[in-house]
């Protein structure tokens, strides 16, 4: 009976040591974020942010053709949909190519459904959102 008692005592000691090793770590105190957010306390709408103003200077370009001939069909399709388009040629150091700028700079970009419908109807039509000025030359 004495041996049984010593065996249970030793098992309890081993269980205690094993259980202490698995004990959860002490919780760390987390600092408040208020010192880091001192400049931005108010909520802003996306339209009021500086990024939205920069994004409004982006235009949607369609094309990417080496010659201007395929753009004639595209210009007519866009005229039927009453979407203004201006033909531009990319600078040769940027790869060149003929593109159509859709819409008017500073206004909202045309609907994505129009672009998808045109891409489905016209083979090899590329579309990109690029800055309105600075990439494409005037002529």
Tag the structure with descriptive keywords:
single chain; 139 residues; alpha+beta; Alpha-Beta Plaits; 4-stranded antiparallel sheet; 4 helices; 35% helix; 17% strand; elongated
Number of helices: 4
CATH topology of the domain at 48-131: Alpha-Beta Plaits
Determine and state the CATH class of the domain at 48-131: Alpha Beta
Low-confidence stretches: 135-139
Task: Characterize the largest beta sheet: strand count, sense, and whether it forms a barrel.
Answer: 4 strands, antiparallel
Distance between the termini: 104 Å
Major beta sheet, strand line-up = 2-3-1-4
Proportion of β residues? 15-25%
SSE inventory with pairings:
Layout: H1 2-21, H2 50-55, E1 58-65, H3 69-80, E2 85-89, E3 98-102, H4 112-121, E4 126-131
Describe this entry's structure for a reader.
- This protein is an alpha+beta fold.
- It has a domain at 48-131: Alpha-Beta Plaits, CATH 3.30.70.
- 35% of the residues lie in helices and 17% in strands.
- It is built from 4 helices and 4 strands.
- It has helices spanning 2-21, 50-55, 69-80, 112-121; strands spanning 58-65, 85-89, 98-102, 126-131.
- A 4-stranded antiparallel sheet has the order 2-3-1-4, covered by helices on one side.
- The longest helix is centred in the N-terminal third of the chain and has 20 residues, at 2-21.
């Amino acid at each position: 009976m004495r041996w049984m008692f010593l065996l249970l005592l030793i098992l309890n000691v081993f269980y205690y040591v094993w259980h202490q090793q698995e004990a959860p770590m002490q919780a760390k105190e987390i600092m408040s974020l208020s010192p880091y957010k001192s400049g931005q306390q108010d909520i802003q709408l996306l339209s009021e942010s500086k990024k939205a103003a920069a994004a409004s200077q982006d235009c949607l370009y369609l094309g990417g053709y080496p010659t201007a001939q395929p753009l004639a069909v595209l210009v007519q399709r866009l005229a039927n949909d009453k979407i203004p388009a201006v033909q531009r040629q990319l600078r040769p150091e940027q790869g060149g190519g003929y593109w159509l700028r859709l819409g008017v700079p500073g206004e909202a970009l045309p609907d994505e459904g129009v672009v998808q419908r045109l891409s489905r109807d016209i083979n090899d039509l590329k579309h990109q959102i690029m800055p309105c000025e600075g990439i494409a030359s005037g002529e």
